[in-house]
Write a structure and sequence with these properties.
This protein is α+β, with helices and mostly antiparallel strands. The protein is 51% helix and 20% strand. The strands form two sheets. It has a five-stranded antiparallel β-sheet. A four-stranded antiparallel β-sheet has the order 7-8-6-9, with helices on one face. Helix 2 packs antiparallel against helix 3, helix 4 crosses helix 5 and helix 7 packs antiparallel against helix 8. It is rod-shaped and about 100 Å long. Its main location: membrane. This is Small-conductance mechanosensitive channel. Homoheptamer. It is found in: Cell inner membrane; Cell membrane.
């Protein structure tokens, strides 16, 4: 019985003696971890505020560099803390290498997201502030992070998509080109004057100062269906004016056609934006 008590006492005293003998190192390690956590957060915020103001620095790099800075300082703090409590540096690096290999195998998708995020920033198919569609989502790019890209939809919803999925999909950037084409579909009864309808639509387009002269607006007959004629108005505008001009031309075309073609109640005139062409926010 006494032997069992002594063994139990030894089991308690061994870690207690170690803690007492290394109390200074343990306290130092804790302080290093706390300081590292504080420094990582401060440095990350400093990068976020400093880089956008630096000349020639692309704002798309800011979230990625900020996150890399934060995690890098945290890892360094952990290694330093372990060294202070007596863990050999070679053992730490060996453990990190083994852990890195295990993590790489277990988190292949996460590493793929990091690589895809770097490629998105380097090749720049998207940029902060641009409206894009890709991976089945659409919205204004808010942040290109280390693991995923954050978007804001036209209705103000928060969208987060992994970088790998976005990189592997076809990306359509609605804001990158300086000008865009507006398509307005018009359907009128075939009993009405097509030539007159074309003149009305062209006048509506050319009277809007946001519509570009070159390429000039045009109206063509798209198809015939039963007793109706499908026409389409095409006009080019500067990309920032796309959405407002689209709405305006759609409304003005309907008003002008109904009034000037003397359409009766039985005449169905339909004017709609082309459903095949998205009408996103471009600002």
């Amino acid at each position: 019985m006494d032997e069992s008590v002594r063994e139990a006492s030894n089991l308690v005293m061994i870690p207690a003696n170690w803690l007492l003998a290394n109390a200074g190192s343990i306290i130092s390690a804790i302080l290093v971890l706390l300081f590292g956590w504080y420094l990582a957060r401060t440095a990350s915020r400093f990068v976020e505020h400093l880089m956008p103001r630096a000349y020639g620095v692309d704002k798309n790099f800011v979230p990625l560099v900020s996150q890399v800075t934060r995690y890098g300082i945290l890892i360094f703090a952990v290694i330093t803390a372990l060294s202070l409590i007596g863990v050999a540096s070679t053992s730490i690096y060996a453990a990190l290498a083994a852990a890195g290999l295990a993590i790489a195998l277990a988190l292949q998708n996460t590493l793929a997201n990091i690589a895809a995020g770097i490629m998105l920033i380097l090749l720049r198919p998207i940029a902060i502030g641009e409206f894009i569609t890709g991976d089945g989502v659409a919205g204004v790019v808010v942040e290109i992070g280390l693991f995923g890209t954050r978007l804001r939809s036209t209705s103000g919803l928060y969208i987060f998509t992994p970088n790998q999925k976005l990189w592997a999909s076809a990306i359509t950037n609605h804001s990158r080109e300086p000008r865009r084409r507006i398509d307005v579909n018009v359907s009128i009864p075939d009993s009405l004057d097509i030539a007159k309808a074309r003149k009305i639509l062209l006048r509506v387009a050319t009277s809007d100062k946001r519509v570009l002269i070159d390429p000039s607006p045009n109206v063509h007959v798209d198809s015939f269906s039963g007793a109706s004629v499908a026409m389409q108005l095409r006009a080019w505008v500067a990309t920032p004016n796309y959405l407002s001009t689209l709405y305006s031309l759609t409304e003005e075309s309907k008003i002008a056609l109904t009034k000037e073609l003397n359409a009766q109640s039985e005449h169905q005139i339909s004017v709609t934006p082309d459903p095949n062409v998205p009408s996103p926010e471009t600002k």
